[in-house]
Amino acid sequence: MPEPDDVVTEGRPGQRIIVASWVSDALFAVTAVPLALGVSGLKPVALGVAVTLFVVGIAVWTWAFAVAVARSAQGDDIVVSSMFLVQGPVPAGVRAQLFGSLALAVAIAVATGTADAFGVLMPMLPLGLIGLWGARHGTFPPRPEPH
Asked: What residues are paired with 76 via a beta bridge?
């Protein structure tokens, strides 16, 4: 039975990973931007959101690494660069969505970093989601047999 994330929606594998990346950007923006504009009452909330998104990002990185290790053990030749750069036959829309979300997260972090220094850690989540998409849905060559 396929896992929910394996369901193809709108022709895109891993649609939930893509949506999660954009939702994390929106959640970050909703708290970080007003704080940067001077709404000081949001400081504890913005701090909590930024740290939570960072911790979730670390968990996602760990999950992506575990999936990659499992696929490697099954014979796929997965290297970090191909997993996180989403190389190979990947739909252009998927790559654009994942890297667009990462770019937005970085832009928000840079723009709001002086108001909430922990916000600069938030882009770890969209980057981890790129790795998770690559580990789960990427196409990798078979691992070469040892000589």
From this structure: 142
Reduced to 3 states (helix: H, G, I; strand: E, B; else coil), residue 63 is helix
**Residue type at 146 in one-letter notation:** P
Measured CA distances, 75 to 35, 60, 68, 70, 139 (Å): 48, 23, 11, 9, 12
The encoded tokens of residue 33 equal 């931007």
How distant is the alpha carbon of residue 126 from its chain centre? 3
Identify the residue whose tokens are 């193809």: 8
pTM of the model: 0.85
In a domain, 142, yes or no: no
Cα gap 98→141, rounded to integer Å: 22
* 22 within some domain: yes
CA dist., res. 64 & res. 69, Å (int):
9
Segment 7-50, tens digit of pLDDT: 444 556 799 999 999 999 999 999 999 999 999 898 999 999 99
Residue 131, token pair as written in the block: 């790795």
Name the domain count of the chain. 1
- The answer to whether position 145 is within a domain reads no
